[in-house]
């Protein structure tokens, strides 16, 4: 899967009911206020199925909703802690994120030339995580796996 860098416009929350309720519950349970700004940020993130950074999110949000970058930077750790969002990779000084709620665990291939991200599933990685954790007496909470190199299109261009 490659990234297209587009965010869906804000719409009815009903299509994200379960995810938004999970976020609201997390906020309330941890003593945070549920604000329209946090909800707009969460909704935009949850409608996005690609990887993104704060700048991309900010540019897409500010068209419809007056949201500051500071609010986005404060909301992202809350979404990570709630289990809805994950940090994926750091590139050019910018962390990139992806929504994780309701998605199967997957890993990434990252092209060093065109910067596209390709997702793949490899159940054997989860088995390896369990085996190594068991051998080392380690309680695993998950893993990230990324392969970086050159996609087939970029390899063709180099030849």
Write the layout of secondary structure elements.
Blueprint: H1 17-29, H2 36-47, H3 54-62, H4 69-81, E1 85-91, E2 94-99, E3 107-111, E4 117-120, H5 123-136, E5 146-149, H6 152-158
Parallel strand pairs: 3-5
Antiparallel strand pairs: 1-2, 3-4
Helix pairs in contact: 1-2, 2-4
Primary descriptors:
single chain, 159 residues, alpha+beta, Arc Repressor Mutant, subunit A, Dna Ligase, domain 1, 3-stranded mixed sheet, two-stranded antiparallel ribbon, 6 helices, 43% helix, flat, disordered N terminus
Order of helices and strands: HHHHEEEEHEH
Could you tell me the strand content as a percent range?
Answer: 15-25%
Taking the sheet with the most strands, its summary is:
3 strands, mixed
Radius of gyration over C-alpha positions, nearest whole angstrom = 17 Å
Distance between the termini: 24 Å
Second rung of CATH, namely the architecture of the largest domain = Orthogonal Bundle
User: What is the top-level CATH class of the largest domain?
Assistant: Mainly Alpha
Q: Which consecutive residue ranges, at least 5 long each, have pLDDT under 50?
A: 1-14
Global shape: flat
Q: Based on helices, strands and strand pairing, what is the structural class?
A: alpha+beta
**Mean pLDDT across all residues, rounded?**
84
Q: How many beta-strand elements?
A: 5
CATH level-four homologous superfamily name of the largest domain? Winged helix-like DNA-binding domain superfamily/Winged helix DNA-binding domain
Q: Helical element count?
A: 6
What number of structural domains do the residues give? Answer: 2
CATH fold-level assignment of the largest domain: Arc Repressor Mutant, subunit A
């Amino acid at each position: 899967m490659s990234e297209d860098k587009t965010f869906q416009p804000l719409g009815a929350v009903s299509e994200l009911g379960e995810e938004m309720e999970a976020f609201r519950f997390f906020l309330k349970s941890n003593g945070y206020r549920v604000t329209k700004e946090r909800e707009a940020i969460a909704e935009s993130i949850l409608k996005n199925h690609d990887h993104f950074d704060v700048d991309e999110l900010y540019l897409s949000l500010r068209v419809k909703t007056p949201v500051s970058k500071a609010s986005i930077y404060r909301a992202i750790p809350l979404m990570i802690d709630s289990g809805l969002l994950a940090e994926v990779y750091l590139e050019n000084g910018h962390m990139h994120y992806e929504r994780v709620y309701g998605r199967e665990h997957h890993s990434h291939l990252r092209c060093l030339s065109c910067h596209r991200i390709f997702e793949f599933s490899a159940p054997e990685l989860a088995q390896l995580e369990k085996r190594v954790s068991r051998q080392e007496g380690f309680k695993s909470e998950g893993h990230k796996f990324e392969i970086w190199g050159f996609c087939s299109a970029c390899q063709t261009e180099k030849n």
